[in-house]
Amino acid sequence: MDVSKLLADVNNFVWGPVMLALLVGTGIFLTIRLKFLPWRNLGYAVQMIFRQKNKHEGDISPFQSLMTALSATVGTGNIVGVSTAMVLGGPGALVWMWISAAFGLSTKYGESVLAVKYRETNSVGEMAGGPMYAMKHGISNKFIGSTMAALFAIFVVLSSFGIGNMTQANSIASALSSSYGIPTWVAGAVIMVASVSILVRGIHSIGKVSSVIVPTMAVFYFIAAMVVIIVNISAIPAGVAEMFRMAFSFDAVAGGVGGSIIASMLTSMRWGVARGVFSNEAGLGSAPIAAAAARTDHASRQGYVNMTGTFFDTMIVCMLTGLVIASTGVLGTVDPATGKLVSGAQLTILAFSSVFGDYAKLIVSIALSLFAFSTILGWEYYGEKALEYLIKNRKVIMSYRVIFGLITFIGATTTLEVVWNFSDTMNGLMAIPNLICLLWLSNDIAKECFEYQEAVVVREKNGEDVDYCAETDEIEAAHQRI
């Protein structure tokens, strides 16, 4: 039996049309159920990122919580995933990435609200939350809830070593090796030391480092991408028009932007949605684990804060990569050495090189390394909290931190096709119990959303500074005096 082929077939099934329809369908349902408030309050949500609620219970600030979540989501998918989607699904795939992200806002909001609402405090005073706690405490049928929670936690732990660790380390080592000839073992050793030194100190250390790395890498990539886009600004209008034409064409068509690439609407939709979800993780249930650690006065406030992660990841960073590729005319380039279409990181490098020349390798290598390293940090926290749900022993948790850091070296120096397919399958399986939980507890999400809208959002949009917890405590104290 060919294990690699079997895993690839299983992975293709897990990430097939049914799963993608469930992911997007849940987002559409929640968007309508919440009366489009996640869309209407997107500007408000961005403002909330920087509003600190430090006196409330939690481990890290709302900003650090978002940066921890973004550290795990803004990764190789933003560079490799976008270019791959545009090669396999045509330039129209980028449009479908945006569409899936728009509905993903509501999904990310809902799962983050539940994570804060049902979080607990663990034995060392840290917050423990995420879909597994929402399933355990929120679902009325305790057997079903506990079973779903255990399965979700197992999938997260298994995913963390692959999709969140070895494959990321391998991406860094491969990029540095192919661009500059740096031995993979050297890159692996550096990644390992850096990872262990940060991870052993826990969420406070991860939050602080992420709050520096994520904004820095985002600004660096934004500036580099904007330079390329501005230089090729004359090609943008026609390129965007071509994207939308190919995104909604029922017949397989080719366009100037796509070069020799031919794709239909269904092909564009399939690859755009798949890579979009892979990049922003809306619906997978991973980001809410970081949301549960935030200091906040209301579950909805952190729901809005973490929701912006999907906006920044897909609607900004992925869009930049897509526009760089589209505006430079490199999509559809054939590699003369292999006779195949140039894809992945090499296509992104080719696009940047049209403006930066040989420095393109440096730009993409730096961006890829920072994106991938931050993903390692974020996913360790996800895996740790999932393991903590399954096993309460603190020695096991501390051992996990060290082992997780050490395994990055194996990832950097090993061929990973089997590991990639296995971990990608586990990553997809996380979504099944999470989506069931979101639909099951949609009334809880709606109640929190509408209550917060009336009590806080409307007033804060009018210039008031509202502390929901403080006001609630005052009302309860008044009732007790009466």
UniProtKB/TrEMBL annotation:
Q: Quote the NCBIfam families the UniProt record gives.
A: agcS (TIGR00835)
**Keywords, alphabetical:** Cell membrane, Membrane, Symport, Transmembrane, Transmembrane helix, Transport
One Pfam family, short name: Na_Ala_symp
Species this chain originates from: Schwartzia succinivorans DSM 10502
Topology within the bilayer = Multi-pass membrane protein
Where does it localize? Answer: Cell membrane
Know the name of this protein?
Answer: Alanine or glycine:cation symporter, AGCS family
Q: Which family does it belong to?
A: Belongs to the alanine or glycine:cation symporter (AGCS) (TC 2.A.25) family.
